[in-house]
Amino acid sequence: MSHRGNRAYDYTLQPELNLNSLQQYGYAYDAGAQSDTSSPYSTYAPLEPHHPVASTSSSPVHGYGVTRSPPRARQYIPRPLDWRPDFIAHAGATTSQKGRNITITHDPTPRDLLDILAHKLPHPPICHDLRFPPMHARCIQLSRPTQLGPLTPSDLMRSATQPPVAHMRLYHYRLPWYIDIVGAAGRAVTVHDVLTQLHTHLSVALRVEDVDNEELCDDDRDDIRRACWRRCGAMQPDKLRRVDFLCELTVFEGLMRNVEDGTWEMVLRSQ
What we know:
Helix content is about 15%, strand content about 20%. With about 270 residues, it is an alpha+beta fold. The strands form 3 sheets. It has a 7-stranded mixed β-sheet with strand order 7-6-5-11-12-9-10. A 3-stranded antiparallel β-sheet has the order 1-3-2, with no helix packed on it.
């Protein structure tokens, strides 16, 4: 996730403002302070304690001295216990792979992915924006290998791997969760299972502890909220979803096998 500097904001202080309301933001009102007309700006800004600054109203009579008490550091909770232990926040793909602690082999059997799901360059076999339902997924057409078209019912019912498997564990370096794909009634995982269960998992609402924890930095939280705004045109806490952890990397282009532990890496790109 990108790292951006904190933005500073100035707020215009009008004489008719109810100064009692400033106390809830950590400001104190000093009625005896004099106005300073030397500044060309009509603003107030946080200062060190006991160093009042007056508003620069055109008349000294209307000046207000406003000081701000030192801000208290926000306390964040520990990272959730259900996050995958090898998740590294605000790390790139290369860094995150170096940080993976492979201790459990999930599927030692060699398997090949179905061509629809096996990521290949320069023409990935599938294109699906994970912010939308699986019906919007497109795959390479056999008659025109360089063009994408809708998945057919027979495409969706095909086994995702050969030999077939009843459970696949997916991951991406930006997601703090594994995504476990299971076949219906213990049967083989199909393309339909992969796409629908991916969508179901990424549509889960974020909890407070998923965002306000000590593992994430402020830039991480800003990126998650910005992704929510792009997805639904608003940023409200109840609209945050797991897919927002992916930020701009929402286009699914297939899977790659991690031979170390038998898991499957999701290959994503930006829109």
